[in-house]
Design a protein that fits this description.
By secondary structure, the chain is mostly helical. Helix content is about 65%, strand content about 0%. The chain has helices at about 5-10, 35-45, 50-60, 65-90, 100-105, 115-140, 140-175, 175-190, 225-230, 235-255, 260-285. Helix 4 (about 65-90) packs antiparallel against helix 7 (about 140-175) and helix 6 runs antiparallel to helix 10. The mean pLDDT is about 95.
Length: about 300
Amino acid sequence: MLYPELFKQLESVRWNMDKDIPWGQFDASRLSEEQAQTVKMNAITEWAALPATEMFLRDNRDDSDFSAFMSVWFFEEQKHSLVLMEYLRRFRPDLVPTEAELHEVRFEFDPAPALETLMLHFCGEIRLNHWYRRAAEWHDEPVIKAIYETLARDEARHGGAYLRYMKRALQKFGDEAKAAFAKVGVLMASARRTAQALHPTNLHVNERLFPRDTIQSRLPDPEWLEAWLDKQIQFDAVWENKVVERILHNLSLLMERSFESVQELNRFRKEMTQKLAATAAAASAAGGPPGTQPA
């Protein structure tokens, strides 16, 4: 099991909200109104770890190890929301999210393949790490800069934990896991080709609630994310390339095969898809269940 070791690793570097955040360095003159508004939106977005955890537990009922790890991930992600709200409570109490605003982002996600969801959130952690690093550079106020730097490090560690479970999945599911990871990897590394930011909180997850079935669509300002990325923290092509490079680098290590571009990863995805189809066809011809080899 990975959970016991991951628990110890994450606990050893866990920060304390009272002692490790430099609250005394706050400088009101360096916090603009638009910056303060983005803190509120991020606080609500981080609250979405609640429905994400409910989804993970539902779709991984056969995996107690990963489900137990959710206790750590959920705690630390909700802590992100809490520290951003604490910042507002101390310095901009008029912007503290209401319970109704927080509850609005708690809704049921449609069931999805567990392997694809795992890869999706791995990529999401990489992307959020880079978003928060850029946010820390954009902000002028010392305390919120320190908070975003702290959150960015957490997201990087969470990505590393998800990667451990992805390695385990390759051992258990082989080509099925490779195909799932490559499929989502191509999607998440192709943000420059899409009109919206590719992150779990900005993807449609409940067909019945469409179009209000993304986390971002249920925020007080549904348009804030694109403005935050494009106009405020200016998450440009240089930063987007950093995300793509990290995704491709980690998948290269995971698959033991070099991916220098999304196109190479997509070719690998097609190979895996064809291989799985051939295996299923062979098993069907032999009268066995999919995934088995003919005698």
